Amino acid sequence: MTRALAASAVIVDDVGRVLLVQRGHEPEKGRWSVPGGHVEDGETFAEAARREVLEETGLHVEIGVELWAVEVPYGEFGVFEIHDFAATVLGGTLHAGDDADAVRWCTDDELDSLPLTRGLAGHLRRAGVMSRQSPV
């Protein structure tokens, strides 16, 4: 079975919303997730997360602590080993790029109404990143 290494960034704004991208490719095309993707040869997980955020959202970020790591089986795609990091926006202009069909900020209340990638809402809530009040 193929093992693919991947990294993602969890970016939360000043009012407690998380940045999500709508996946433009399989696996889980059309579902919403945090920005991320494959680790390229020679990259660390953190470097891959930083690069993927820029490619998918146009934002420059500082990568912080690792929030979680999971292994996710994806049928014919094999197993993804995904490492997710906290990240802070340093600059850039938010737009959907690379393999993202759309980008949006999402409140905790909105998580349950979106088609998210498998297990994402639970990971975000267990890590405490969605603990702030939603904007009024």
CATH topology: Nucleoside Triphosphate Pyrophosphohydrolase
- Class by alpha and beta content: alpha+beta
**Number of self-contained structural domains:** 1
- What is the tally of beta strands? 7
Largest sheet: 4 strands, mixed
User: Into which percentage range does the β-strand content fall?
Assistant: 35-45%
Q: What is the name of the CATH class?
A: Alpha Beta
CATH homologous superfamily heading: Nucleoside Triphosphate Pyrophosphohydrolase
Query: Can you tell me the CATH architecture?
Result: Alpha-Beta Complex
* Neighbour order of strands in the largest sheet: 4-1-6-5
Straight-line N-to-C gap = 47 Å
Residue windows where pLDDT falls under 50 for at least 5 positions: 132-136
In percent, how helical is the residue content? Answer: 10-25%
**Gross morphology:** globular
H/E series: EEEEHEEEHH
User: What is the alpha-carbon Rg in Å?
Assistant: 14 Å
Give the helix tally. Answer: 3
Mean pLDDT: 91
